[in-house]
Each structure stands twice: as structure tokens, then as C-alpha cells.
Amino acid sequence: MKLPIKFLPLLLLLITSFNLFAQKKEGFSIHGKVRGIKDTTVFLAHYFGYNQQVIKDTAKVDAQGNFHFVGDKVLPEGLYLVSLPKSKYMDIIIGNQEFSFETDTLNLITKMKVIGSKENETFFKFQQDMAAKFDELKAVELEKKMNNSPLANIKIRKIQDEIAKFQKEWIKSTDGMFVNKLIKASQDPEIPPFGKPMVTKADTTAFYSYQFNYYKEHYWDNVDLSDDRLMRSPFLQKKIERYFDDLTVQSSDSIIKSSDLVLARAKGRDVRRYVIYKIASTYENPKILGTDGAFVHIAEKYYIGEPALWDTSTVRKMKERVSVLKPLLIGKTFPDMYLTDTSGTEILIPKIAADYTVLFIYDPECGHCRESAPKLAKAYQSLKTKNVKVIAASIDRTPVKWKKFIKEFKLEELIHGIDIHKNPQTGKEEYYTDFKNNFDVYATPVVYVLDKDKKIIAKRLPVEQIEDFIDFHRKQSVREREKTKTGK
Predict the structure, then answer these.
(1) Could you tell me which residues come within 8 angstroms of residue 391 by beta carbon, excluding any fewer than 6 positions away?
(2) CB under 8 Å to 331, separation ≥6 — which residues?
(3) What is the widest separation between alpha-carbon atoms in the chain?
(4) Could you read off the pLDDT of 19-55 as tens digits, one per residue?
(5) pLDDT at residue 425, as a whole number
(6) What whole-number distance in Å separates Cα of residue 262 and Cα of residue 242?
(7) Sign of the CA dihedral 14, 18, 20, 26?
(8) Measured between alpha carbons, how far is 361 from 392 in angstroms, rounded to an integer?
(9) What is the 3-state secondary structure (H, E, C) of the chain?
(10) Per-residue pLDDT, 457
């Protein structure tokens, strides 16, 4: 059958489109040339935070500095680095999966030429322009230093204004590009003028308070947390760490508030997972006493509460971890610990009359425990004058080892407990205390400090810090009581 002439152009168009589609390759193909290197290997890796990189490909370099990164799977988009010999590297943006670049080890940035990637062309042009402006600034600063020229300050301010203007215009002109998001994410929010002269000390205090509050409130304005590509950059980790380390009070309540604020913005799946992971891993075993409550919140709300983000094993482990930590948070009443003393009598911790009770949980053969024991013996001589009782609980259920440890380190004055109980009916030994799962004893020694009501006020303190902490807590408690009485 002969097709009418009028159908032929449409048919040819369909055939051509089909052929183009069939020829389109999945994967990536990035050609590079770096003058100054030869006969070596280079690596292509994406960032995972600023201190980790994930290698995605390697390539051999020929005698002319040519190499080719190629693969049959599409690379996840983001900021990558090309690692060169002698600890040199350069950043490139992976969006378009096929492009080429050429540069020189004399100056990887200024000598860079890119073909086939608008993002990278824009990225390197920005860096080249900024480098030129900073070179100009350095020259004027050197002139000022060498000649003490009064005109130098005017020149410096002019160049600084030009840089600020250039950056603002560049941000506007590149709106919608990933390189725009990268550069913005690396910048701090611009704080508007205070709008009030600082005359008194109160004005100065108000000024600094205004600056801090504005900065914190607008800290995330330049960061698009709906874009998963930012996870593969060094900037997101830096922003998270600064926000929580420098701008958030290190208490569970403040950390929880900051976490919820950030995660309300984190819409991208990869970014969301990354932010959740970063916060949780920071506060599971925190450096600051009492902030593990933030971990429990994150685990419950964002791991257990959002199971679709995680594999079932991760969710299960989080449930197990929360079940251990939640009863042991600061402010919780210390759970029942079933111990008997050296005479076989049950130790009732809630019945121990003391302003403070210290639990020293140890293994008689643990090296760190043996290092801590003499320090504990020494500290107790002062602690006992302050109505502090110390319970030393052995996780090893071997009476010989237990009693040898007590005698060896002259700890007889302490209250000593072991988890050995005789069943009155059978006469057999029974064990009731699960130290690992009920008291989070995954390594020894572990120290808990309880107040007079047997509520946890500190945990995992080094033995040598116990007395200082109790003295601090006592003074703080006195101040709180005085405030309550006076209403101030």
C-alpha cells in the first residue's frame, strides 16, 4: 500500500524521534584534560557532608593529561570533586551527565574551560570573577601595609562594595540554577541595620540581641531544603553543625525546637534523611550532659514516626534504643535495680537516705574500672561529709572477683551490690537485673548521680567530676529555691 504524500513528513518525524530516543544512552560520560598530570589515576566522588566523599568512578590519565569518567548508570546530581595527585582537587557540578572540561595544574580554577555544561560554565566563571576581584583587593591591602596610603582604605571599601554588588547581581541572574543554590547555601543571611543609636549599655545589649535573633531566625533563608542535591555538597553539614552548636542552647527542649523547625523545611527525601541522621547521631551519645532527650524525640518522631523513610531494621533498632534510653533521661526516677549486698541482704535504693546517691556500675576485670576505682575511693572521703552515698554495683556475678575488687581498692566504706538472689523456695541463685537493656551499660564503668528523690540528674560522668558536679548542682538548687521564695 502506498502512503499519501501528506503523511510522509509526519512518519519521517516519528521515525527520527524514535531513532534519537533509541540512541540516547543511560549513564554518564565526562571527558577531562588536566595539563600537568600524566600516567596516573584520578577519582570522581560526590560530597557527603564536608568531611566524607563517596567515590563513584576512577579513570586512567594518559601522557597528555586526558581521562574519561564513564558509566552505564546515571550519577546522582550534586557537587562532586575530581581528586588529582598531590592532594589537588577541583569541584564540579553533576547535573548534565555528558560534558567535558580542560584546565591546568598551574591554576585549576582560572585555567578552566567547560564544554556542554551550563551549570559548570557558570560555576567556574563565578569563581574566576571572584578570584580576580579578591586579587585586586589583596593588592590594595598590600599597598596599605607597605606604604600606609590614606587612599588605600577608600579603595578597599570600593572593591568590597563592588564584590557585594557583583554577588547580588549574580544571584539574581542565575536564579533557578543549582549553582545558585550552592553559592547561596554557603552565605550567611544579611542583617538589616538596627535602626537605633547605641547610647546606653541597654541599647548595646539590645543591638546584640537583635543581631543574634535575626541571624538565627533567617539562618535557613538561603538554603533550599527541598533540593536533595544539597545533600551532596559540603555546605549542608556545615550549616547544620553551626546552627546546633552555636545558635541553639544545649538543652533538650531547645534542641528539639530547633530540630522541628529545620525538619519542617526539609522536604526533599534525601535531605530529610540526612538532617535527621545528623541530629540523631549527635545527640544519641551527647557531649553535653542531659541532651539525649533530644535523641529520643528525634527517634520517636522522625524514625519510628516516619517508617517510610527507613528500612525496617533501622526502625526496629531505633525502637529498641528508645526503650532503653527513655526511662533513663535526666529528670526520670531511677528504675529499680535489683542488688544484694555482701551479706546477701537486698539493697533498696529508694530507701537510702542521702542528699545525693551515686551509682558506680563496673566490671571487676574492666581496665577502665580499675583505673577509676582508686579515684572513687579518694573522692568518697570528701563526698561522705556532704551526705552523699555511693553504691558500687558489679555486673559480674562472680562473688570471688567482686569481693577481691572491693578489698584490692579499699572500697569497703561504699555500699556494694551484686545481682545474685536466692530463691527462697528452691534455694537456687537467680538474676533479675539486665544491666545492658535496663541501664544502658554497653561499656563500663557507668556513673549515675541521683538527687534525694532518686531522680537522675547526671549520667556517664567521669569519676573525677562527680564531686564538682554535686557541688554545682547543690548551689544551683539553693539559688532556685531562693528565687521561688522571693519571686525574682
Answers:
(1) 339, 347, 349, 352, 357, 358, 359, 360, 414, 415, 416, 417
(2) 455, 456, 457
(3) 110
(4) 444 444 689 999 999 999 999 999 999 999 888 999 9
(5) 81
(6) 13
(7) positive
(8) 6
(9) CCCCHHHHHHHHHHHHHHHHHHHCCCCEEEEEEEECCCCCEEEEEEECCCCCEEEEEEEECCCCCEEEEEECCCCCCEEEEEECCCCCEEEEEECCCEEEEEEECCCCCCCCEEECCHHHHHHHHHHHHHHHHHHHHHHHHHHHHHHCCHHHHHHHHHHHHHHHHHHHHHHHHCCCCHHHHHHHHCCCCCCCCCCCCCCCHHHHHHHHHHHHHHHHHCCCCCCCCCCHHHHHCCHHHHHHHHHHHHCCCCCHHHHHHHHHHHHHHCCCHHHHHHHHHHHHHHHHCCCCCCCHHHHHHHHHHHHHCCHHHCCHHHHHHHHHHHHHHHHHCCCCECCCCCEECCCCCEECHHHCCCCEEEEEEECCCCHHHHHHHHHHHHHHHHHHHHCEEEEEEECCCCHHHHHHHHHHCCCCCCEEEECCEECCCCCCEECCCCHHHHHCCCCCCEEEEECCCCEEEEECCCHHHHHHHHHHHHHHHHHHHHHHHHCC
(10) 96
> Where do the domains of the chain lie, and which CATH numbers do they carry?
28-115 (2.60.40.180), 222-328 (no CATH), 339-480 (3.40.30.10)
Written as nine digits, the cell of 363 is: 566490671
- Which residue type is seen at 233? S
Rounded to 5 degrees, what angle do the CA atoms 315, 320, 321 make? 95
**Spatial contact of 394 and 362, defined as CB atoms under 8 Å apart:** yes
How far lies 133's CA from each of 137, 139, 165, 167, 182, in Å?
A: 6, 10, 12, 11, 20
Residue that has been written with the C-alpha cell 534519537 in this structure: 20
State the Cα torsion 323-327-330-333 to the nearest 10°: 180
Q: How far apart are CA 15 and CA 386, in angstroms?
A: 91
pLDDT digits (tens, 9 = 90+) for 426-475: 878 889 999 999 999 999 999 999 999 999 999 999 999 999 999 999 99
Q: Which residues of the chain have pLDDT under 50?
A: 1-24
